[in-house]
Amino acid sequence: MKAVLLQDVKSLGKKGELVNVSDGYARNFLFPKGLAKEANAQAMNELKNAIQSKKFKTDTEIAKAKENKAMLEGEKFVMLAKAGKEGKLFGSITAKEISAEIKKQKGIDVDKRKVTIEKEIKTCGEYKAEIKLYSGITADIIIEVKGE
Description:
With 148 residues, the protein is an alpha+beta fold. The protein is 35% helix and 33% strand.
């Protein structure tokens, strides 16, 4: 019997998959516990629509990530920080501050956990940072730190 899983079932499959199971297993275990439903025409149509919806969502996310990459790639962001003599900063520039600067200058929301800095920014100068926009899509930017 074919069934559409409503939840992840260990050693059977993930939510939304179409699986082939024995009649007894389906009727006595999967259906009563709400783990699956019979793969009739309506269930198959819902499954097909869910798959198309998920594909559309990922396609739009990838397109947005590529658009953001085009806007960010090779950009230079100038950040001001309090510095002592010889350009040594009081503190450091963090991924959170870089994320906020990108949001301020370009209007692109970047999670601070997606910002990778080459090395700690504790002195004035130029640094490279990598922004992960989507799986496999990254943008390299330059952070220029100037002392106040």
